[in-house]
Specification:
It is built from 14 helices and 17 strands. With 432 residues, it is of the alpha+beta class. An 8-stranded mixed beta sheet has the order 1-5-6-11-10-9-7-8. Strands 13-12-14-15 form a 4-stranded mixed beta sheet, sandwiched between helices. Helix 1 (18-36) crosses helix 11. The longest helix is centred in the N-terminal third of the chain and has 19 residues, at 18-36. The relative contact order is 0.11.
């Protein structure tokens, strides 16, 4: 690169080849699974009024105070690139009158933006999958979302070594009582807490429970648990969620220190965690946020949802689990056969066959590129004197049964005037 060549912004990424295929495989699998569960597609803007995120995420959270990309537009409005999906979906629910459609099962995916220190699987522009159920207070909604998440991870082939950690934050009365008991406990040990946790004590005390600072761990581990103050109603809700997961065959484990700091979270909180991505091992997480829409100025509305980082999921996928290409390459033996090769390629693509073409070079060089692209076979279009042998198929499948079936299917779908020679191996064709 020259000295004036622009460089990528730190913390962003470009994708090509297998990396891009992994990314797309996550998106395609998500779209297929969310349809199985009846989740409709929703789209929301990449930027919103800053107040949407400040009110939903809390003015004092790290995301709002340190990580959001906010700017003033020419009209003087403060706008923010979305750091997460849920607030924008909640805003859209209110401003578009979607209350008439509850319960709403919604799903989306796309780019998000946070100014944070880049690390493995985390970028300043990153991408997430998102699934939400709005307007359903029943624990069955939590169960369905968790079962869908479990199936997604399974179909991506990454469920081994991933654990569903589950907790309850209780109803409003339980949460308030737990918060008060935690504040009392942490105040008694305030001088021994880290600086960050001392700050959290006044604005977000539940977050001290999942602090990674070694100074905080003994104090956090000795803190009172939510079960000590759990109401009967909250306990029954959590029991309905766990029994629903058991009935669906979804394994889970209790993590009584799994929390959500903002006051609008209620009841279920969960994370799917792996040890394959370093310390930041969460690949999918979410919870019930019954108070969010009310915090944005709407009526009290129950809701639950989850999000998952596409890049982090893609990193866990084994290359062998990516969908096979099974390409058929169509290559003209001579420039005079270029149009005929294009006709055949178009015919095959219309019939659903992945067809690879190389736009320039000799037949030999094009064949080399087709091999490197992983083609299962090459269909040469030949300019020969004998009109009975205009096509020749080279099988690159090395005895792979799937590839052989694919190639035989291709041969049976060639357009007229081509027809396979009677009694030949699979290489000869003639013009009828």
């Amino acid at each position: 690169m020259g000295k004036n060549t622009p460089h990528a912004i730190r913390g962003t990424q470009d994708m090509l080849g297998e990396e891009a295929e992994r990314f797309q495989h996550v998106v395609d699998t998500f779209d297929r699974v969310r349809r199985l569960y009846g989740f409709g597609r929703v789209e929301v803007p990449v930027f919103e009024q800053t107040a949407v995120f400040a009110r939903s995420l809390g003015e004092t959270t790290d995301v709002v105070s340190k990580e959001m990309y906010s700017f003033e537009d020419r009209g003087g409005d403060s706008l923010t690139l979305r750091p997460e999906f849920t607030a924008g979906i909640a805003r859209a629910y209110l401003t578009n009158g979607w209350q008439q459609f509850v319960p709403l099962k919604l799903a989306t995916h796309g780019p998000l933006f946070r100014y944070e220190r880049p690390q493995k699987g985390r970028f300043r522009q990153f991408h997430q999958l998102d699934a939400e159920i709005i307007g359903a207070a029943e624990p069955a909604a939590d169960v369905e979302l968790l079962v869908m998440a479990d199936q997604l991870l399974s179909e991506l082939g990454i469920s081994d070594g991933v654990t569903l950690q589950l907790n309850t934050l209780g109803d409003s009365a339980t949460r308030d009582a737990w918060r008060d008991s935690l504040v009392t406990h942490f105040e008694a040990h305030k001088g021994d807490l880290s600086e960050d946790s001392q700050d959290r004590l006044t604005r977000n005390p539940l977050r001290i429970l999942d602090s990674k600072d070694k100074r905080d761990r003994p104090i956090a581990d000795a803190a009172p648990g939510i079960d000590d103050v759990m109401s009967d109603e909250a306990a029954a809700f959590f029991d309905a969620v766990t029994s629903g997961l058991d009935a669906a065959g979804v394994a889970w484990e209790r993590n009584a220190r799994l929390v959500r700091g903002l006051d609008y979270y209620r009841h279920t909180a969960f994370e799917f965690v792996t040890d394959r991505l370093g310390a930041q091992g969460t690949v999918l997480g979410g919870g019930r946020y019954d108070g969010l829409i009310e915090a944005l100025g709407g009526p009290e509305t129950p809701a639950v949802g989850w999000a998952a980082g596409i890049e982090r999921l893609a990193m866990l996928i084994d290359a062998k689990d990516l969908p096979g290409k099974l390409l058929i390459a169509v290559i003209p033996d001579h420039p005079s056969m270029e149009n005929e090769a294009n006709r055949l390629a178009t015919h095959l693509r219309v019939r659903g066959y992945s067809t690879f073409t190389v736009l320039r070079g000799s037949a030999k060089k094009r064949a080399d590129k087709a091999r490197r692209a992983g083609a299962a076979g090459i269909l040469f279009v030949r300019d020969e004197d004998d009109p009975n042998r205009r096509l020749h198929l080279t099988d690159l499948s090395d005895g792979n049964v799937d590839a052989e079936d694919f190639l035989m299917d291709v041969l049976g779908n060639l357009p007229e005037p081509y027809h396979q020679l009677e009694g030949s191996d699979h290489t000869g064709f003639r013009v009828l």
